[in-house]
Amino acid sequence: MTQFDNRKIKRPSMLTEKQRSQIRACSKDEKSFEILIDILTSQQKSLEHAKSEFFSVIGHELRTPLTAIQGSLALLAKGVPGPLPEKAINMIEIAIENSIRLRDLINYFLDLQMLESGEAKLQLQPVELKPLLNQAVTNLKPFAARRQIKLILQEELPGIRVEADSDRLLQVISNLLSNAIKFSPSSSRITITISDHGTMGCFSISDQGPGIPESLQPVVFDKFVQADVANDRQSGGTGLGLSICKAIVEQLDGEIGFTTTPGSGTTFYVELPAAPPDNEFTRRQKRRTTTSQ
Ligand SMILES: Nc1ncnc2c1ncn2[C@@H]1O[C@H](COP(=O)(O)OP(=O)(O)OP(=O)(O)O)[C@@H](O)[C@H]1O
Ligand SMILES: [Mg+2]
Fold it and tell me: Are 41 and 163 in a shared domain?
């Protein structure tokens, strides 16, 4: 696959237009305005840097003891130190489940933090949607089969290519597909389609699940949002999956959204810039290299 661009995720603009005009209003002249902007921008940069250092230290400090806890629990569950009564084994299983949940929470949270701060590196490539969707379907088939859920990949898939980071895009597809499976009734169907929207390539994942409750719809991409705590505890989610999907898709200059009918199903869709022909990638790549020199 042709690699045509390695870039850091776009950083959000440091100062908003409103903040800039407030600063302009209290600046004596253009020069003092520029100086103030520079000072504030560099302060914001160092605050962001400190924040991301903080998260990475916290991440390490949490992950290291958690790995040790998980190791000990696994040994206990296997009966390595000696046989345990049934009740103790049940309690260890609960502890293992919760330690997995905590590990996922830490990993998802750090991933989201990296995406939002612009530290996550994206490897942009022309990516064909069909093989990637196929891969996600293959990976998640056993999970769907356990609940007799059929995953249907549209038969006549156009060979659409988009500009994306294939690992990150697979992460988005897997999150959306696993949500669809998790929230679908058993013996239902999930349909995946690809469509060509001119300058954008699109895929969608439709389920026959309960839909997203009206109260949740405006905030469903926010962090830690889950419809029903009891149900989600059972399904073991963190409530960060959709926030991560949104962060990735936006960094890829795409759009993510959904349509839902409570009681009859939900469709999540993702639109990404269509990949131009290979010779255009090479031209762009050359232009980027020349400008960055
Ligand atoms: N296809 C869907 N049908 C119905 N509800 C959904 C669907 N997808 C997401 N939701 C609702 O949105 C919430 C947030 O989804 P999100 O993927 O962010 O978290 P999660 O799936 O609960 O946890 P995680 O992704 O960490 O496993 C879900 O808990 C669920 O209530
Ligand atoms: Mg999820």
Answer: no
